[in-house]
Each structure stands twice: as C-alpha cells, then as structure tokens.
Amino acid sequence: MKTLEEFVALFAELFDDTDPSEITATTVFHDLDEWSSLIGLSIIAMAVEEFGVVLMGDDVKNSVTVEDLYNRIISKA
Amino acid sequence: MIYKGEIVYLRALEPEDYEKTYLFRDYEMQKMTCGPIRFSSKAMEKNWAQAKALDNSRDIYLAICLIENDEMIGWYSINDIDYRNRKCHCGGIVIGNRKYRDGLAYEEAGNLAFRYIINELNMNRITGSCLRQHIMSRAMMEASYWSLEGIERQSIFKEGRYHDVCHYAILKDEYLEHLNNGDFEPRKRMLRLGKAIKQLKADNKQ
Q1: What is the DSSP letter of A49?
Q2: Where are the domains of chain A?
C-alpha cells in the first residue's frame, strides 16, 4: 500500500503547470488554479491503477485536502 | 427535449444562459483549449448565446444541468456538423462550476452527448482536437479509443508562442464495437486512462 507521501507525489504529477511544491497533504485541491474535470478524472484513474479502488464523484467532491482523498481511497482499498 | 443521466442532463442552450457562460470563461480553462484567450463582455456573451440558441444547423450547443436542482454547470458543443458526409467535430465540454469538476459530471455529459451524436444525429465520423501539451485531453481521447490522425505543427498562437494541435477521430463502427465489448465500463476505462497518461508523459519527457 502506498504511503501518504507517495500519494501526494502521484497527485502532484497529474498537474502540468502547478509547481509540485505547492501540493502537500494539506492542500485544498479544489482551490488550485489548474483544477479541472480532466484532473478529477485522472485522480479517479490513478486510484484504480495504483490502489485498485473505484472512486465515486462524491469521494472527490467531498474531499477537501489531498490527505482527505488519500484517506477515502485507503478506506476502500 | 432533454437527454438525462444520473447526475446531469443535457438541454438546448437558451439565450438567457449567457449569464452563466460569461462566468464559465475563466483564464485557466481558455489556456488549455484550442481557442484563443480573449476578453468577452457580457454584451458579447449575450449575442453569442443568442446566436447559438437560435441556429443549430451547423453547431449544436447543449447546456449541462444538474438533475438535483436544474442548475446549469457547463456546456457541450458539437460543431461543423456535415449531414451529407455524416461527420462532426466535438468542440469540447466545459464544466464551468468548479464545484462539479470531480470528473463524473464531465464523463456523464460526454457520454450523453456522444449517444446523441451517434443515435440521433447519425454521425459516422467524429473528430476532436487538443493542444499537444495538454496531456489530460489527449489521454482522455486515447482512453476513449479515438485515433490520432495527425499533428498540426505550430497551428495556434497563444500565450506568446505557437502550439502544436493533435487531431483525433473515431468512427461510429469503432465506437459501437468498443461499446458492445464493454470497453467503456468505468473501471476498464479508468485503467486505460491511467495508462494513457503515463505513456504520454513518458513520451513528452523524451
């Protein structure tokens, strides 16, 4: 199972223009300028590929920080 | 008429929707499209929405609305419709309300619109374009079994430089074959999307 730090690194890789140093476990990801539906879908894809977990829309929508999202994934793994 | 899913439905764009479309044209969104970055006044937006709402002979603009409260959260455009040769261009999906950028509204609106394109407009060839550096758009098309037909070099000037544009297409038979194979099942599709992102990022680094 991937650690929170590894998840944060995978999460940061999905952004093209956002400096990876801007993304930490406590980042409120919906507020990032680059946040888009395609990045939302990429996160769902990453959760399937790396954790074998299928996220629902509410999992992404109701998560506030990157760590919240990680915890949701872990709880389903 | 409406096309309904589980989260969103599609309806025709109405002239009064300009108040929403005006708010949806943010800089970050414009940066990633093949269109220019431009200022749009409310008056221009009003004329634009009115024009799209009154003439759907060549372009169809659909409002994406939430089932739970009818709020318009974005739009989908079908452009350059050619009924003789049964082809059209997917201009794109915009989810303007950031709260709904979880991916699922986008995914469902895209599926609904595609069903409309195939089953009602009876299109045989559907094209789509995106900036070469926009990995997520490209990955999405590749995960949806669209074929890359060419790269137009230095095709678009924005943000002070020229950008290459990737042109993709899918044929009706290809779409139906994958649909019947269950290839659009969410888990399969997301796995394919993840692999496409990794591959394109690796290609970009070379």
Answers
A1: I
A2: 4-76
